[in-house]
TrEMBL record:
The keyword Protein transport applies. The Tat system comprises two distinct complexes: a TatABC complex, containing multiple copies of TatA, TatB and TatC subunits, and a separate TatA complex, containing only TatA subunits. Substrates initially bind to the TatABC complex, which probably triggers association of the separate TatA complex to form the active translocon. Belongs to the TatC family. It comes from the Bacteria. This is Sec-independent protein translocase protein TatC.
């Protein structure tokens, strides 16, 4: 390995500690790798951005009963989408390419983030953190897919409020921002039950408390869904709230199983851990191994040796 590579990726101690300057070099190295991966995947996103635009705008452009200000085309039959200005199309294509690059580079930048943080964590924290990351990815993907599936119906509900004597027009960048906001809200909302499970595993929240909060939690989930959804209609709110409620109940179940397993381990290690200070603990009547405690045990005496030994005679003068 050359001197340049050694400076680029500084070595770490076994316990993960290093000086502040080495931490900064480590951070710089992780950022450079992540940025390089983003640049490569953004180029890939640029090559497929036409297909991505068609997948994103297809549900909106195929809505019936919606009439835009633009001319109907084969790609957008109702003409509801438009770009304003000579650079609007380039800006929209670049945003979509970067969005695709960010998603495609997720394995690289997420690993670089984990590699930077993991050396400073304990073994238990590493185990929980890695499990959290592995579970967070499919949950976010499930929320994003649900947002994409419900997006056409949500747009149809919103555009139905437009009076019949008015045309509908939506700028391309505004449409993309609205779609991304909806995907982020659905994806991050699916992470809330996972956060509760992580807090339970760390001992911050007990399963008993989570079970006691279920009424308040369901009400809070519906209120959060009503505020967080970009559309604000009851259908989208319900579609977001119901899966989160199911995930919350699953989180309570996982926390309950974990607390019971932890209670059984504590019972084996210390049967009297639940006693108060003024209660008597259980007496340990198990015989102790004296040799293990360092107490010498005399060896048995041979009868023949005892008979051959001279008898001991005591004189009064020897007694003081």
């Amino acid at each position: 390995m050359s001197d340049t590579q050694k400076r680029r990726k500084p070595p770490k101690n076994d316990d993960g500690r290093m000086p502040l300057a080495d931490h900064l070099r480590e951070l710089r190295y992780r950022l450079l790798v992540s940025v390089a991966a983003l640049l490569v995947t953004t180029v890939v996103g640029w090559l497929i951005h036409d297909w991505l635009i068609h997948q994103l705008t297809g549900p909106l452009c195929n809505l019936k009963g919606v009439h835009g200000i633009g001319q109907p085309t084969a790609e957008c039959r109702n003409g509801v989408l438009y770009n304003d200005g000579p650079l609007a199309g380039l800006s929209l294509s670049f945003k979509i390419s970067m969005m695709a690059g960010f998603v495609l580079a997720a394995p690289v930048w997420s690993y670089q983030l984990w590699a930077f943080v993991a050396p400073g964590l304990y073994k238990k924290e590493k185990k929980y953190g890695l499990g959290f990351v592995l579970a967070a990815v499919p949950l976010f993907a499930g929320g994003a897919f649900l947002a994409y599936a419900i997006f056409p119906k949500a747009m149809q509900i919103l555009l139905s409020f437009n009076p019949g004597n008015f045309a509908t027009a939506m700028q391309g960048s505004a449409f993309l921002d609205f779609f991304l906001r909806m995907v982020l809200v659905f994806g991050l909302s699916f992470e809330i039950p996972l956060l509760l499970v992580l807090l339970n595993f760390l001992g911050v929240v007990s399963s008993q408390r989570l079970r006691g909060w279920w009424r308040i939690a369901i009400f809070a989930i519906f209120v959060f869904s009503a505020i967080a959804t970009p559309t604000g209609d009851p259908l989208t709110m319900t579609v977001l709230a119901v899966p989160i409620c199911v995930l919350y109940l699953l989180a309570v179940l996982v926390a309950t199983v974990h607390d019971k397993a932890r209670e059984r381990r504590r019972q084996v290690e210390d049967p009297d851990h639940y006693l108060d200070d003024d209660q008597a603990s259980t007496l340990d009547t198990t015989p102790s191994d004296l040799s293990a405690e360092g107490i010498g045990i005399p060896e048995p005496v041979n009868a023949s040796e005892l008979a051959a030994a001279e008898p001991m005679v005591y004189h009064p003068d020897d007694v003081t």
